[in-house]
Structures are given as C-alpha cells and as structure tokens.
Automatic annotation (TrEMBL):
Residues 1-64 are annotated as: Domain I. Its main location: cytoplasm. GO terms for cellular component: cytoplasm; Holliday junction helicase complex; Holliday junction resolvase complex. It holds the Pfam family HHH_5. It is found in: Cytoplasm. This is Holliday junction branch migration complex subunit RuvA. It comes from Tritonibacter horizontis. GO terms for biological process: DNA recombination; DNA repair. Residues 180-231 are annotated as: Domain III. HAMAP family: DNA_HJ_migration_RuvA (MF_00031).
Length: 231
C-alpha cells in the first residue's frame, strides 16, 4: 500500500499530477481544490495517497491532509459513490465543509457537488453521520486529540448542570492551527464535559458554519450555547 508520496511535481493535468520520486513517476488523481493548492511544477510536493486496485485498474488518489484522505475513504464506502464522485464532493466542499455538512445532516449542501443527486446525497449523510465526530477530531495532532484541551479553572456555569469553557490563557505550541484544529479541540472539550459525539459534532459544525473564522474557544462557547437546554 502506498500511503504517502514525497517528491518533485513533474506536471499538472486537469484531474491529476505526476510526482517524480527518485526517478519514478507516480500519476496521482486529486480533487480540484487539492490541485489548486499544490506548488508550481518543479517544486517539492507531498501528498497522502489512497491506492485503488481492481482487476483491470490501479489508481492513486492524493490528498493534502489525513482528514481529506479519511473522508475519501468513507465517501467511497457508500453505495453508489465512486472515486470520481468523492473527489467532486471534496473539491466542492473541502474536508471541513464535508465534515460540517454531514454532521448537520445537510444533504442539500452535499448535493451541490457535480454528479451527486439528491438520493445519493441523502444516503451519504445517513451512512456517514455517525462517522463525522471521529473525522473532525483528526484536525489536531494525535496527542492533542487524545488529551483534549485543559479546562482547569476555565469553566463557568451555563444553564442547568452544564459548563462552558472560557478562552485558554495560553495555547500549547503543539496544537495545529486552522479551522480543522479548532473544531477538533472544541470536540475534545465537549467530550470532556460529557456531551455525546454526535451532538457535539453537530453543535461544533453549526457554530463553525455561523462563524467560519472562529477559534477553538469561540467554537466551544458557541457550541455550548447551541447545546444548552431551551426554555
């Protein structure tokens, strides 16, 4: 199994690239979003890869993050979703967008991808909604995902029997940056506070959709407001 390639970008085509790894050229198919994020031809490049093997076909698919790779694996496990459709979804929504749409059960957003009909979009959401929390939690480093954020002394009461995390005084240097890392940290915090994975993922996804540039602490507060008992 080829899990990652590091080499020189030899050329870019409409749906694939060639990566030269010590004189061996690997053709790797990518989403539009991934292709647009790659460096110019001739420069160093690294992609996580998934190898598709059939009786008459071998193809490599490339991803800039493990989250994107995992969503591709899960999407192609859904009946009627092949690699082409999976790349179309990831190219349209990005891995963070896929996480939000599936966590929220938003099949209409999934349907926006080329080649995805309403029935397929609904099947994707139904089959993968329980998988969204685990994939969203991959946004940070492995140690951060396991340990979760430090909530000691940073909790204040909200509603009945629940607590909210206030902003951290300082963030560990090992925490990854970006929307995926913020969502992963927020999910870990909510899990530490006793919320179920599906409820936490839906709340974090909705909070991230409302405030796309929110940091981890802001996501935690917004998600807790969404999870607080109504009335």
């Amino acid at each position: 199994m080829i899990g990652k390639l590091t080499g020189r970008l030899d050329y870019k085509a409409l749906d694939h690239v060639m990566i030269d790894v010590r004189g061996v050229g690997y053709i790797v198919y990518c989403s539009d979003r991934t292709l647009a994020s790659l460096p110019p031809v001739g420069e160093a490049v690294q992609l996580y890869t998934e190898l598709l093997v059939r009786e008459d076909l071998m193809q490599l698919f490339g991803f800039t993050s493990l989250v994107e790779k995992e969503w591709h694996r899960l999407l192609t496990s859904v009946q009627g979703v092949g690699a082409k459709v999976s790349l179309a979804i990831l190219g349209t929504l990005g891995p963070d967008g896929v996480s939000r749409a599936i966590a929220l059960g938003d099949w209409a957003t999934v349907k926006a991808a080329k080649g995805v009909g309403p029935k397929t979009a609904q099947r994707i959401v139904l089959d993968l909604k329980d998988k969204a929390p685990g994939v969203m939690a991959m946004g940070g480093t492995v140690s951060d995902a396991l340990a979760g954020p430090d909530l000691d002394g940073l909790v204040e009461p909200v509603g009945e029997g629940r607590a909210a995390a206030a902003p951290r005084k300082s963030a560990p240097k090992s925490v990854a940056t970006g929307a995926a890392a913020a969502a992963a940290g927020a999910l870990s915090a909510l899990a530490n506070l006793g919320y179920g994975p599906s409820d936490a993922a839906a709340a974090v996804a909705e909070a991230a959709a409302n405030v796309p540039d929110a940091g981890e602490a802001d996501l935690i507060r917004a998600a807790l407001r969404l999870l607080a008992p109504k009335g």
